[in-house]
Design brief:
The protein has 226 residues and is of the alpha/beta class. It is 34% helix and 27% strand. The protein starts with a strand and ends with a helix.
């Protein structure tokens, strides 16, 4: 399957590196197809791709590609009923910048004509994404967006014990992912401090071990991990 990953623009290289590291850990046969700074297009097994939503700190949205073309007219021509899910659903079409939103109504009309589905702009069963990736127009189905609320709730200021050197949760999660660990692997942090990296490693299913020269920080780490 081909997937389009919308990346955070937090950093010029870390978001892409994080996605590729998670895929490498979960699916050794994945392929990177294209990258333009904001979107990463990959071929991967469905189970591995869904890990991106669960694990990555710098992924904003994951979509499954249905059809692609070098031009928008070609994409409209290529789309066929057998590419769309069976059954009756509500749907919406959303064009991501830099694709013009003027393509949303005609694409919606085309899908509605093929399926008889109802348009629902508020809470659609299926959200179609019209995306441009490295010069290629892609029609995809959104599989979900990453909520950053959980990361924010784990900010150091909300923990029982904090320290000025503590890594923030999104960066700590990225570091864990760059290590290409799988659930059940052991993560050792020899300079654990109050546990910023170990906390994120535990949340992705790893077993964690921490060391630090300062006993006070080790006690703080244990408190935070509990």
């Amino acid at each position: 399957m081909v997937y389009v990953v919308r990346l955070s623009l937090f950093h010029p290289t870390l978001p892409r590196a994080e996605v590729l590291a998670v895929l490498e850990a979960m699916d050794s046969g994945f392929k990177e197809l294209s990258f333009d700074g904001r979107y990463l297009r990959v071929e991967a097994e469905p189970e591995a791709a869904r890990w991106l939503l669960d694990r990555c700190a710098y992924v904003k949205e994951l979509s499954e590609e249905l059809v692609s073309s070098d031009d928008i007219e070609g994409l409209f021509r290529k789309l066929s009923r057998d590419m769309l899910p069976n059954g009756m659903f509500s749907f919406a079409v959303e064009a991501d910048k830099p694709v013009s939103r003027r393509f949303e109504p005609p694409l919606g009309d085309l899908i509605k004509g093929m399926t008889g589905w109802r348009v629902d702009l508020e809470k659609p069963d299926i959200l179609f994404k019209l995306i441009r990736v490295d010069g290629l127009y892609v029609l995809a189905v959104s599989l979900g967006k990453v909520s950053f609320k959980d990361f924010y709730s784990r900010e150091p200021k909300f923990r029982p014990v904090t320290h000025p050197s503590t890594m923030k949760p999104m960066l700590a999660r990225c570091m864990v992912n760059l290590a290409r660990v799988k659930p059940g692997d052991v993560v050792l942090d020899p300079f654990c401090g109050v546990g910023g990296i170990l906390l994120e490693a535990g949340l992705v299913g790893c077993r964690v071990l921490g060391l630090d020269i300062a006993p006070k920080l080790v006690r703080g780490c244990l408190t935070n991990l509990r």
